[in-house]
Amino acid sequence: MTNTEIRPVGPEPSRIRRSRRNRGTGQPRKASESTAATTLRTRGTRLLAVLFLAPTVVGIVVFTVVPIVGSVVLSLFQWDVIDDPRWAGAANYREILTDSTVLVSFRNTLVFMVLAVALQLLIALVLAIAVNGQMPKWLRSVFRSAFFFPLVLSAASISVVMKYLFNQDFGPVNWLLGTVGVPSVPWLTSENGAMAAVVLAYVWQQFGFSFLLFVGGLNNIPKEVHEAASLDGASGVRKHLAITLPLLSPTLLVASVVGIINALQVFEQPYVLTAGGPGDSTRTVVMVIYETAFEQLRFGEASAVGVLLFALIMAVTALQFRLSRRYVHYQ
Amino acid sequence: MPGPRTSPTASRVRHGLAPWGRIAGLALCALLTLGPVIWTVSTSLRTPAESFDLPPKIIPTNPTVDAYRGVFDQIDVWLYALNSTLVTALIAAGQMITAGLAGYAFARLEFRFKKPLFALVLATMMVPLQVTMVPVFLELKTMGLTDTLLGLIVPAFPTAFGTFLMRQYFMGMPKDLGEAAMIDGAGPWRVFRSVYAPLAAPGLAIVGVLAFNYHWNEFFRPLILETSTENLTLPLGLVSLQGNLGTGSISVVLAGVVLSMIPAVAVFVVGQRPLREGITSAGVNR
Fold it and tell me: Which of A302, B3, B90, B270 could form a cystine bridge with A293, CB 3.0-4.6 A?
């Protein structure tokens, strides 16, 4: 099929073959052939590129680019899908910025983000450094698989499980804490307890992601660096602070950027575990988008919240890259 | 093991802790990590009377599969599993095709607007699903695809991350192979089909396994799109099972959780390496 398309412009395939036989293997041959190959390439290639890219590019335009524009446009209208959309201008934004539930949801999401990302990175880092130490190979892969395992489970179904684990009276979490003398914690029925439970459930499932990144990053640090430091008499903790961390900083940046973007979109854990409560204490931005659009059918306001969330994600990520310029070291 | 790692002083300095202390700590953390899963499996095998037992016994005294029977009585597990399988398998297959083709085009074909198009694909990796969900829902509504499985499948076909991954994969392959084939008279399609595509199988496996894992567990999109009971996927069916919490036993709910975990665990066992590689490169490349 493609051969017939090529023939009219490029040299005949047979002629290329002949030229190869005639000239043997020399530099000049290569030059002339690469022009032949270029002609070949530019011809059938353009059609092929269009065909190959069409599904992805059309899909991305229809299901991402248009919806982004749509979100912004929609945020300027009032619409319940039943009646015609009504122009609202900035009214939606004014409304959501004075709506206490929306404001609280942004505060909750930021609090959640800080706690979840900090905890997740800390746990992952300590475990990755520990796993990277000396031990039998099979043991290392057992640990690696164990920490990675929760990632493959469904956040929704594991949140169902967590709801029982965190039950104040018969939940194993309080029982476990009780064995070390910690009094019963009202996990799901108090504001701070609920936030803590949501954070812990999320971190439990997510830390494996950063862990895998760190294990990969640590493997990329040349062994000689640590050996040199040991010879200079650096102690364990000091060495990790002074050497491992700076060398790992590009991986740390990636892990924190991905971690933050994901944390700002948290939904399943608070939805299943606490349904946003008690009160609004664990209601997150995405939950508000969901409820405003699909339960209250206020699509304009929901889009406005979505646009604000998008702006927040972009701002936080940009800020992070800015700050990292000073702290991230590339080898 | 040769080198300074074996010498006792070096290893003490290197790790800060004696190896056994570190390994014990790791073992405790691994136990805590797997604890909820072990508890879920063991509770699902208990009788309702024993399900709240504390301390939780790992091995139930009277193991029973009644809870699993209860799941099948209360929700249509087979239907939801079939829906989930259909959706997940089609998305995984679709993503392997679209990402394979687009990744190859970006890596090996010459065409106009290549750079801006690639930048567009990369940029969409950053856009959260939740932000675009309302307009996507409205689009699907005009197409008549809300509350259908197709509405879940089609928007998931294009994958920015998969495209990026496959581009990297194809870029890593020697250029000479394709050039040699071209000199032998192969057209661009032949070069792709006969030379590069077969070599891309491991990369495509990563895309497929990641897609399977993600979409099998997906909750947000099905929650918004699917309203009829017969269109629910397993995670949704499960949360509806939890609605019976007041009356039913937790064993039944947890049995449902275990059932929904089986394919994810299977993917973990079979596709552990591709999954790990996919996740690692997700971080490294973003």
Answer: A302
